[in-house]
Amino acid sequence: MELTQSLQCLQPSYIREILAVAGDPNTISLAGGLPAEQSFPMPIFQSIMSQLANDSSLFQYGPTQGYAPLLDYCDQHFSLSPTDQSLVTTGSQQGLDLIARAYLNPSDGIVMEAPSYLGAVQVFELAQARIIQVDQTSDGPDLTQLEQCFAQHSPKLFYAVPDFHNPTGVCWSLAVRKQVAQLCRRYDVVLIEDAPYRELRFAGEMLPMVSELCPEQAIVLRSFSKYASPGIRLGVITGESHYIHPLITLKQASDLHSSLPMQALLLGLLTHDHFPQHLQAIRALYESRYKILASAIAEYLPDSCSAWPIEGGMFLWLILPTCDVNTLAKTLLKNGVAVVPSSVFYPAHMEGSYSALRLNFTNAEPEALVKAVSRMASALAGEV
């Protein structure tokens, strides 16, 4: 049976593929966006799970929109307005898929930062959308390009990760957030604000979400994978009801509803007395690992390599002298280090403007981070 044209054009995820290869115990993986397993709140989970077994209703079919107590928590915690609605999804990746299927016809325009999150690129390519890229600066998208893009191409959506961007780690400045909100309003473009890393700030000042500055023009994706655990596969979409209601209908046709026991488990964690300390511990762990990686880069790598400083999240963006980053990534893998080359974070028909590597620092032990950079230095000496 012949595949659809859109699926035939879709490339497998480089990151998912390399994670399988990087399973070799002699390979240090800085490739996937994996949280540290020791950060998972297992003692809290254990106490909650023993209570869940006493509620058989959690193991029945449930409402598509989500577990009512968890939805109430989201309404309060995210300070949603009376006209807003929440939808619990099977990871925020499902949220992206629902948005694409609900709002993007083939050739509809969607703006993305360049580079951009691979999972979003795949979703929008599968929807056969017309992806328009805007260069990223050290504090957010190039605003001149963005306005020109809005004016000339009349896109429907602007997808962005303003807090600790994947893959670059960039956090938009307050000035950029305000101007992007104004542009979305002026040109009637809906912002898709993806916020999976917002809770992982370990330095600097918490900034308002862009969606808070243009709530009538925004849909927000949130993930619980990065500070609860990826295995529970839960996220939430929020926005004005007229944006969210069609997504609920789509989810009915997709998987009926996300796991009720996992939603109850997540709520138990979020409302647990020790949850604030859990978040603080994750932030402290990731800050220490980031500093170790950044220090090792400064010590071992040549001055021609530079890393953008970050204040949170899971990734460091290592900018290299011009080179074939795909060949370099293969060489590094042979040398026992798995990384993701910058070329992966652009649509298939577009090319990156510079050579870089995305390095994940959250899932490797400190000694492994230093060893990985040492191995990278050896490989780089022969490649760039």
In short, what is this structure?
This protein is α/β, with parallel strands linked by helices and 384 residues long. It is built from 14 helices and 14 strands. Helices cover 43% and strands 16% of the residues.
Explained architecture:
The protein has 384 residues and is α/β, with parallel strands linked by helices. The protein has two domains: 5-40 and 276-383, Aspartate Aminotransferase, domain 1, CATH 3.90.1150.10; 55-270, Type I PLP-dependent aspartate aminotransferase-like (Major domain) (Aspartate Aminotransferase, domain 2). 43% of the residues lie in helices and 16% in strands. The chain is built from 14 helices and 14 strands. Strands 2-9-8-7-6-3-4-5 form an eight-stranded mixed β-sheet, sandwiched between helices. It has a four-stranded antiparallel β-sheet with strand order 10-11-14-13. The protein has a two-stranded parallel ribbon with strand order 1-12. Strand 3 (109-114), helix 6 (118-126) and strand 4 (130-137) form a beta-alpha-beta unit. Helix 7 runs parallel beside helix 8. The protein is globular and about 60 Å long. The mean pLDDT is 92.
Task: Reconstruct the topology from this structure.
Blueprint: H1 5-9, H2 14-21, E1 28-29, H3 42-52, H4 68-77, E2 84-89, H5 91-103, E3 109-114, H6 118-126, E4 130-137, E5 140-141, H7 143-153, E6 157-160, H8 174-187, E7 190-194, H9 210-213, E8 218-223, E9 235-240, H10 241-254, H11 260-270, H12 275-300, E10 306-307, E11 315-319, H13 325-334, E12 337-338, E13 340-341, E14 356-360, H14 366-383
Helix pairs in contact: 3-11, 5-6, 5-10, 7-8, 12-14
